[in-house]
Each structure stands twice: as structure tokens, then as C-alpha cells.
Design a protein that fits this description.
This protein has 198 residues and is mostly helical. It has one domain (6-190): Tetratricopeptide repeat domain (Serine Threonine Protein Phosphatase 5, Tetratricopeptide repeat). The protein is built from 9 helices and no strands. It has helices at 6-13, 19-31, 36-51, 62-79, 90-103, 111-122, 127-142, 146-169, 185-190. Helix 5 crosses helix 6. The N and C termini lie far apart (39 Å). Keywords: Membrane, Transmembrane. This is Transmembrane protein. InterPro entries: DUF924 (IPR010323), TPR-like_helical_dom_sf (IPR011990).
């Protein structure tokens, strides 16, 4: 019997034989906007259920745990792009991610899958979690064969960029407008710089 999270994991990660092959196939899904409506059609109801506090039973295995993390962290950013609801699942995603990390469940996933667990911490406006994220990405990079190193160096670089912003501001200034938070003059100046938005 197909696990309820399996269609989501197959859609998100595809069938690539290596981390680079998966990234080559799926980066447009992960980091583009072209598949937002497809995500809504396929998984919108599951996202709503997860955001409402449901699907706890998915946390009984590493694969289900990963699926729930995607529903809370990645999919809302697609379904509710450019609205405050994009961040609605972040708090629960952080709790769920930390619980699984403490169990070592990330080490039962493929390296490319572990990236999306760590992205939960990368999205957090909490410096301790940013520091942990960068530390885990460095470990993940060191574990990679030469063929994967460039890809995982890129993931680490983005994590370090996020870490520096939280270290400087304690939050992501590019979220201020959507979340109706007033920006400081320093944040407004920063937002004029290249690479200030994610």
C-alpha cells in the first residue's frame, strides 16, 4: 500500500539517480513559480490539513516526517506566494524539524532530501537555528563525493547568506512588507542591495 506522503515525495524529488540529477530536474519546481498551481491542485488539501495541525501520524517515520516538513515549509511558499500565509506553517515546521533532527532521522534520508529539512532552519528568524543550519550544511557538504560538491557548496552558500542577515537584523527585512512590520532605515537601505531578498 502506498504511504500517503509518497506521491508528494515523488513529485518533489523525482527519480534522479544522483543529487545533481534530482536538482537538475526539480530546481524549477523548488525555486521557480511555474509549478505553483500544480502544487495547489495536487497537494492543496494536504497543506491545509497540515497547517491546521493535522497529519501528526506522518511523524512516525523519516519519510513521513520529511513529507510533513514539505507541507508546512515549502508548499505554503508556493500556494500562498507573496502573502503572509506563505509563512503560516513555519513555526510548526521548525518544531517538527527539530524533533526529527534530535532523533537522527535526517541521516535516514538521502542527502538531497536532507537539504529540505535544513531549509526549515534556514527560513527561521532565530540565530541559533541559523547557526545550526550552517553547521549541518557544512557536515552535509563534507560527506559528498566530488561530483556533488558544487551543488552542496551552493546550498551552504545560501545558508550562510541567510545566517548573516539574521545575525545583522534578527529577521528577514524582505518579509517586513508582507507581514506588516515597519522597516528600520538600515533595513530599507539593505533592501536596495543585490541579494537582499530570497
Amino acid at each position: 500500500m502506498l504511504a500517503p506522503w509518497q506521491p508528494l515525495l515523488e513529485w518533489w524529488f523525482g527519480w534522479g539517480s544522483s543529487a545533481q540529477a534530482v536538482a537538475d530536474e526539480k530546481s524549477i519546481v523548488w525555486f521557480g513559480k511555474q509549478h505553483d498551481e500544480e502544487a495547489r491542485a495536487l497537494f492543496g488539501l494536504l497543506v491545509e490539513e497540515a497547517l491546521a495541525g493535522g497529519l501528526d501520524e506522518w511523524q512516525q517515520s523519516p519519510q513521513g516526517w520529511l513529507g510533513l516538513i514539505l507541507l508546512l515549509d515549502q508548499l505554503p511558499r508556493m500556494l500562498y506566494r507573496e502573502t503572509p500565509h506563505a509563512f503560516e506553517g513555519d513555526r510548526r515546521a521548525q518544531v517538527v524539524a527539530m524533533q526529527g533532527l534530535q532523533k537522527g532521522w535526517d541521516y535516514q534520508l538521502l542527502p538531497i532530501q536532507r537539504v529540505f529539512v535544513l531549509l526549515v532552519l534556514e527560513h527561521a528568524e532565530v540565530l541559533d537555528w541559523q547557526n545550526l543550519c550552517v553547521e549541518r550544511y557544512r557536515v552535509l557538504l563534507e560527506e559528498q563525493p566530488e561530483a556533488n560538491r558544487r551543488l552542496f557548496e551552493g546550498f551552504l552558500d545560501y545558508a550562510e547568506q541567510h545566517q548573516r542577515i539574521i545575525e545583522r537584523f534578527g529577521r528577514f527585512p524582505h518579509r517586513n512588507l508582507l507581514l506588516e512590520r515597519p522597516s528600520t532605515s538600515e533595513e530599507m537601505d539593505f533592501l536596495l542591495e543585490p541579494g537582499s531578498r530570497f
